[in-house]
Amino acid sequence: MGQRLMNERSLIVRVLPSLSNLKSTVLLSSPFQSSAMRRFFSSQVPSCQFESVGFIGLGNMGFRMASNLMKAGYKMAVHDVNCNVMKMFSDMGVPTKETPFEVAEASDVVITMLPSSSHVLDVYNGPNGLLQGGNSVRPQLLIDSSTIDPQTSRNISAAVSNCILKEKKDSWENPVMLDAPVSGGVLAAEAGTLTFMVGGSEDAYQAAKPLFLSMGKNTIYCGGAGNGAAAKICNNLTMAVSMLGVSEALTLGQSLGISASTLTKILNSSSARCWSSDSYNPVPGVMEGVPASRNYGGGFASKLMAKDLNLALASAKEVGVDCPLTSQAQDIYAKLCENGHDSKDFSCVFQHYYGGKDEV
Questions:
Q1: pLDDT tens digits for range 224-238
Q2: Is the separation of the CB atoms in 212 and 141 below 8 Å?
Q3: What are the residues whose beta carbons fall under 8 Å from the beta carbon of 306, sequence distance 6 or more?
Q4: What is the pLDDT of residues 272-295, one digit of tens each?
Q5: CA-to-CA distance for 348 and 35, rounded, in angstroms?
Q6: So which residues are the catalytic ones?
Q7: What is the value of pTM for the model shown?
Q8: Residue 13 backbone phi and psi in degrees, to 5
Q9: How do beta strands 182-183 and 194-199 pair?
Q10: Which of 351, 238, 248 is nearest to 294 (CA)?
């Protein structure tokens, strides 16, 4: 399935840049009984147990993820609050649904990819949400790939586990939820090379692996409910602090007379090498194909980084951990957003906070 994905990718991606401001809504619903699933997947061959997949939230990430599931041969049903993106899928022959609940009624699995905790709660618990049917749901499995706080993931998972399936299938007796946020950004979503960080039942994780590997190349089981969400916010706080460090160093280097391209070569050949320097360099003119090469367009918006840093700080406060670098990073990205750069990629901090210069 993974090879097929790589051979067929890029069917729809030309239309995707116009979707950068889409508001998304995502949905997930599922049932699961754990005992027999490891036997079911012991062959490690992608299974067709989940024939119908619902996808809610068709923004920059969700559009590409849903498209890759289509290419992998899954029967899809989709929902988003944006009518234009719904029409794109309808024109490709994909059933579009008016509400998350309607997606759930048509799906064995529902995947949500939403902007925030409040959106996820609304999709699950709102008037037309996934759990609208009370304690009886159709999907066996609900997967939330949104970046939200771990406690919200755990609360929703508990609510889902208290539901029953409308129709028991195979060894599934109750619906199950997995929190499965992703890393890799829009480029990886397009290429089908995302990394999934998954929390919840390990048996459900094994059952869902073929789905994950239709959208990505790596899956990492993180433990119980909410642990995928926890891993994601830890990853993103590291990414933010790393980008600030690289941007600060490159700006200082320019002021001291060292070109950004020269200093980048040094960083990437020494102990300071990191993703922000060798794969996502923030200096315009140093690296092709990154947001810095296109006026910081696309990529991961600064407002989303600020949101994720807020999640990390809130989670740190809950468990009594002091995170001074996270706090400083959050202040910087909040200022960046206040100054009108909220929709630009988070690497724009090099230019719009530190005052770094383009490479000539």
A1: 999 999 999 999 999
A2: no
A3: 330, 333, 334, 336, 337, 342
A4: 999 999 999 999 999 999 999 999
A5: 49
A6: 232
A7: 0.82
A8: -70, -20
A9: antiparallel
A10: 351
